[in-house]
Design goal:
Blueprint: E1 52-57, H1 61-72, E2 80-84, H2 113-120, E3 132-135, E4 140-143, H3 146-155, H4 181-196, H5 198-203, H6 208-232, H7 244-253, H8 256-263, H9 271-274, H10 276-287, H11 296-299, H12 303-313
The structure holds glutathione.
Length: 330
């Protein structure tokens, strides 16, 4: 079912699809559930096998981050994954058996993600976003902020993993090494605002001014990332090993040429033709299957959902035909 059919009889847009504020700017709201899973078994949310469930859909880049780190860290047998449909309905994300979604929520038989939010907090008033990390024991949402969920996944469950997969034993110091933490945090800040969220602010803008005030900084930031790779000459953003910075940039850039370029009007340049270093970096992450990538980038990438998901999010019944190739070979 397409969202364009879901306006009311007078053609009013349903509240859930109203992304931009009155001034035409899209402002993402802060996440609400902000607890942490901890390796400390006496904590409120101790890291245990079969206790936590990650709710996602294949389209969302924030959910993709969490799913990617779950695979990269080898947590597939420890944290359960529940996939929902990637088409946003007036009632939010739903379970319906389509687009990789389960028929129903496997825990409670729910049909909507909102029901899980209300189970966690009957007075909940925010948006019903993915990803959600659910605790089966306390029957509540631990956290619905992807940047925090991924950090828990880096090391909170390490005592349940083989030695070689633990962060302390990684040659480069792991996904968020102490010696790089400042540089990674600095990059996170502008990449989040101008790139990860910048594509959304560009796509969901409803005035020319709002659009231009986001699309220009987006491409300036891509230029800056290209220059960063050129200056460093490294395989990944911060050296020979994958870090959080690579993970956070990947889920946006893998959607760029395929979806954001056309659907979000981020069409000043394309990654594949205009950013040789970023293009190489992206293909290395996607195609290389070795001890570093663990094949996790390709495995968690679902190109077939991006064009359709973003077209529907923009309330268009048309799914763009191209590009002919989702990602070029290495
Ligand atoms: N800050 C959140 C953002 C998550 C988010 O906005 N997810 C989108 C999908 S890409 C969503 O669920 N939107 C539903 C809605 O806003 O109604 C995070 O990074 O986890």
């Amino acid at each position: 079912m397409s969202q364009v059919n879901q306006d009311d009889a007078k053609g009013h847009v349903h509240a859930i699809y109203k992304m931009a504020d009155k001034d035409g700017q899209f402002r993402r709201k802060a996440s609400t559930f902000r607890s942490y899973v901890s390796p400390d078994l006496n904590s409120e949310f101790p890291a245990e096998k079969d206790r936590y469930v990650l709710y996602i859909n294949w389209g969302c880049p924030w959910a993709h981050r969490a799913n990617l780190v779950r695979s990269l860290k080898g947590l597939e047998d420890i944290i359960e994954l529940v996939v929902m449909d990637f088409i946003l309905t007036p009632e939010g994300w739903v379970f319906n058996g389509s687009h990789g979604s389960m028929e129903k929520d496997p825990l409670y038989g729910f049909t909507k993600l909102s029901q899980l939010y209300f189970k966690a907090d009957p007075d909940y008033e925010g948006r019903y976003t993915v990803p959600v990390l659910w605790d089966k024991k306390r029957e509540t949402i631990v956290n619905n902020e992807s940047s925090e969920i991924i950090r828990m996944f880096y090391s909170a469950f390490d005592h349940l993993l083989p030695d070689s997969q633990r962060e302390v034993n990684k040659p480069g110091g792991g996904l968020f090494p102490e010696n790089l933490s400042k540089e990674i945090e600095d990059m996170n800040e502008w990449v989040y605002d101008k790139v990860n969220n910048g594509v959304y602010k560009t796509g969901f803008a409803t005035t020319q001014d709002a659009y231009l005030s986001n699309v220009v900084p987006l491409f300036e930031s891509l230029d800056r990332l290209e220059k960063h790779l050129e200056d460093r000459g490294t395989k990944y953003l911060f050296g020979d090993h994958i870090t959080e910075a690579d993970i956070r940039l990947y889920t946006t850039l893998i959607r760029f040429d395929v979806a954001y370029f056309t659907i979000f009007r981020c069409n000043y340049k394309m990654i594949r033709y205009d950013y040789p270093r970023l293009h190489k970096w992206l293909r290395v992450l996607y195609w290389e299957d070795n001890g570093e990538t663990k094949g996790a980038f390709k495995k968690t990438t679902h190109f077939e959902t991006y064009k359709e998901g973003y077209s529907k999010a923009m309330r268009s019944p048309i799914i763009p035909y191209g590009p002919a190739i989702d990602i070029m070979s290495l």
